[in-house]
Amino acid sequence: MFMFMLDNLRWKLQAALYILSILLLLVPATSAWIVQVDSFTDECFYEWAEQGSKVGFTFQVVEGGFLDIDVTVHGPDGREVHGGSRETNGKFTFTAYQEGKYKFCFSNQMSTVTPKRVMFNVMVRSPDDPAEVTKSNKLQGMIVALDDALRGVRNEQDYVLVRDNMHRNTNEHTNNVIVYWSTFEVFLIIAGTGYQVWYIKRFFEVRRIL
């Protein structure tokens, strides 16, 4: 009985170590940025990918105007892989058809005044990644799905954190404006009260005629 429990525990430890090693191998190259796109301008970024790699691209407009922007993705030869107009957020995955630099562009040409702040993430999973080679295995397929879900949660957390910082900065700025304006009103009321007292006192002042 004791040997059976020991073997069962050993098997569970081996399974846990196996899953942990797979999760460590599943970590692909990722890049995350927050960029400001001014009006009438384009901002482009490049990411290297091998042929056959899985490239994931997510973005979210977090500030500016109607929270919309034009998005395009081009391959190394200039071919358009993805395009979207006036999008607020998006998630796009494609297979790299050619080795080289893929260009990810945000265009704010439609805006005349307002700049836009965009948070985006690019993930490249190489074709020889164990997650792709052994995806037919049910267990490893579940691990891949779990890894993708965790990355989605992390992206959502990054977005919530950015929005929270923006709202906090807005609230602090509003509070400062209220404090400054209230202080100005106090001095204005004091000055107005002093002027009224002086004017009324002067109006009822008895003047002697020599």
List keywords for this structure.
210 residues; alpha+beta; Jelly Rolls; 4-stranded antiparallel sheet; 3 helices; 8 strands; GOLD_dom_sf
Write up this protein:
With 210 residues, this protein is α+β, with helices and mostly antiparallel strands. It folds into two domains: 30-128, Sandwich (Jelly Rolls); 130-209. It is built from three helices and eight strands. The chain has a four-stranded antiparallel sheet with strand order 1-8-3-6, covered by helices on one side. A four-stranded antiparallel sheet has the order 2-7-4-5, with no helix packed on it. Strand 4 and strand 5 form a beta hairpin.
Number of DSSP strand runs = 8
Number of helices: 3
Number of domains: 2
For the largest beta-sheet, the strand count, sense and barrel status come to: 4 strands, antiparallel
* CATH architectural designation of the largest domain: Sandwich
Mean pLDDT: 78
Helix content: 40-55%
Question: Rough shape?
Answer: elongated
Membrane topology: Single-pass membrane protein; Single-pass type I membrane protein
Signal peptide: 1-32
Domain GOLD: 42-124
Main location: membrane
